Amino acid sequence: MRQHSVVTPSRAARPGVVPAARGRLRSLTIALLTIVLLLVGVGVLMVQSASQVVAISAGQHPLGGVLRQGGYAAIGIALMLAISRVPTAALRRYSWLLLAAGFLLQVLVYTPLGYEAGGNRNWLRLGPISMQPAEFMKFVLLVWVSAVLTTKRRLLGDWRHVAIPILPVVAASMLINILGGDLGTLLVLAALVFGCLYFSHVRLRILAGIAAVAALGIGAMTLMKPNRVVRIMHFFEVDCLRDAEHAYAGCWQTLNGFWALAHGGMFGAGVGGSTAKWHWLPEAENDFVFAILGEELGFIGAATVIVLFVALAAVLLALSTCTDSAFARSVLGGLVVWISTQMIVNISVVLGFVPVLGVPLPFISAGGTSLLSLLLAVGVALACVREAGAPVDATRGR
């Protein structure tokens, strides 16, 4: 009697992080991973260079920057790859639990576990770990808002279904941020949510109304913190390049950022060759890391980094056209707006176009919470891409 063997699907046939089938989706996914890893690599290099002098003068390890930022990068990349394997249905199902965890961390900032740094009370210390819950909340809202919009995708023509429960929840998160003095995160959160709404095809008249309400709310919340009002008024009233009287006060950081970029010239002073990081430029590895990057890598290096961000936005937008999933479109669109807004605000601050807001440069500025949140968000984007390419890969496997 002839025996028939049963052929089971091989493990290789399972969809991976990168779609197996050759085509546009595979090329875009490879481009996404390449750009993200390049930006993370540049970030580790620049954080080490910008923080080395301060670390040595404080008696710390001279390689503390690369060890710290490199460690966060390694953990973030591992989490990115892990979450890329999670079904988006599970992400949507547990998005409310994720939201509860995000709010809990934000509220803990105002307990003895929280502390103030740089004039903002937005830090949380849990044992040996310090984190910024506001940065983690960006990732939380990206997933939660996208999940809500997906559930209500057939009802988004009614403004009430768009506003409830998204606007009250987002407003509560923003209020917690502004009480701590964090205006920069407030603007990025508003842009992120607006991006999710726009790419979910919410009607323009509804978006216009939401934008008007958001602008009024941000203005009112800003007036709640006198130090923010003073900083904004100083920006509009003082010309840092011509008013020598304020050179050692409100203009110190801005002026040293200008001089760092000017010293870099076209080709830069070389990695490690910055003079601004020698205690001249405050927050050199954080909010003003782009100034150090421009000084050491020059105009060519700074322009290349900007081109990478533009390419990343283009790749994410192209990926959003490769899926029919409402959740994927919202996540990819919100991620584009999140990264682009944060990049534009950070570089605009360094160039003196807007007041100093304390917004990190995505993937590059020092900070574990910011980097981990971004890489987690990229992991969710990869999960959406994996499911978009799964039917093609399954067919090929069979």
Automatic annotation (TrEMBL):
Location within or outside the cell: Membrane
GO cellular component entries: cell division site; plasma membrane
Catalytic activity annotation: [GlcNAc-(1->4)-Mur2Ac(oyl-L-Ala-gamma-D-Glu-L-Lys-D-Ala-D-Ala)](n)-di-trans,octa-cis-undecaprenyl diphosphate + beta-D-GlcNAc-(1->4)-Mur2Ac(oyl-L-Ala-gamma-D-Glu-L-Lys-D-Ala-D-Ala)-di-trans,octa-cis-undecaprenyl diphosphate = [GlcNAc-(1->4)-Mur2Ac(oyl-L-Ala-gamma-D-Glu-L-Lys-D-Ala-D-Ala)](n+1)-di-trans,octa-cis-undecaprenyl diphosphate + di-trans,octa-cis-undecaprenyl diphosphate + H(+)
Regions crossing the membrane: 30-50, 70-87, 94-113, 133-150, 162-179, 185-201, 206-224, 297-319, 331-357, 363-385
Entries under InterPro entries matching the protein: FtsW/RodA
Species in which this protein is naturally found: Leucobacter aridicollis
Task performed by this protein: Peptidoglycan polymerase that is essential for cell division.
Keywords linked to the UniProt accession: Cell cycle, Cell division, Cell shape, Glycosyltransferase, Membrane, Peptidoglycan synthesis, Transferase, Transmembrane, Transmembrane helix
Pfam short name (any one): FTSW_RODA_SPOVE
Known EC number: 2.4.99.28
Name of the protein in question: Probable peptidoglycan glycosyltransferase FtsW
